[in-house]
């Protein structure tokens, strides 16, 4: 060890190892969260981003969220979208209604669908197959279907009594193209009990994601922070995701975003831009086996999003058509997305949900 190295702070030494291509540990990541200097973390994350993606480009996508039902029996205490099973305000979309929503989305230039809903025990498994098959029969490969969080898939496994591999095979045969790593929030046992005690455990979430990847259904993962979690729990979540990726390689991207106050039943705290950007930078540095880091313009807004593109993110996770669960600050058109990325200093590239580049519509 040189004299110069000895003079550096522990966090500077951690970042030097990251620059050198070494994998940092969970303890290193926590040290960066607790004591790391923000600008140094952002700078390192931006450099590592440039090694994995085109340094001059930033990507965006266009997809429609279709919430097929708001009936749910999981009762997460942070969610204001769901309705209990006896609610008069609950709904379930017909196959025809889902197809119509995608017809409208295609007219706006969005060829991808994010199909997700509550856990509705009154829906038979055939409902999901019918919806997938209906969309594919109408639009074929012109529409990519990303659907069903781990908690939805676990409910289908329980409903059918089949192994999850058979459930996934049936959904894939019906038209499922990829899966979201949704419903993660904070993947620790303590936070699960606080936020969603009836939801799948971290181990169950991990099992579903690995089986999806083994079935050829790739997708994303995320973290939602800004509640009662500790910093060490944020890093524990990232460790679980990195471990899954080491085994399966199925996460194409990772998205850190923050809780919004939706109900009075759980606590949120204000996450300022410096903390969000630090966490995003740590995600890029720690998740060395995931190529793409997205910043959620929809949740964080364009101001923070622009800085995030210089702090490790390479994608803005927009344009999102029809967001019912969150208060959206997102971009509403492809033109706005391209303008935003250009103003932020990058060449805009539209991509699909598998990160394949797409031609720009005239």
Task: Give a structural overview.
Helices cover 45% and strands 11% of the residues. With 362 residues, it is an alpha/beta fold. It has one domain: TIM Barrel. It starts with a helix and ends in a 12-residue tail after the last strand. 46% of the residues are buried.
Q: How many domains comprise the coordinates? A: 1
| Alpha carbon gap, first and last residue | 57 Å
Evaluate the radius of gyration: 20 Å
CATH homolog superfamily: Aldolase class I
Question: How is this fold's topology laid out?
Answer:
Elements: H1 3-7, H2 10-19, H3 26-35, H4 38-52, E1 57-60, E2 63-67, H5 95-107, E3 112-116, H6 125-139, E4 144-147, H7 150-160, H8 164-174, H9 189-195, H10 202-214, E5 219-225, H11 231-248, E6 251-258, H12 273-286, E7 292-293, H13 297-300, H14 302-308, E8 320-321, H15 334-343, E9 347-350
Parallel strand pairs: 1-9, 2-3, 2-8, 3-4, 5-6, 6-7
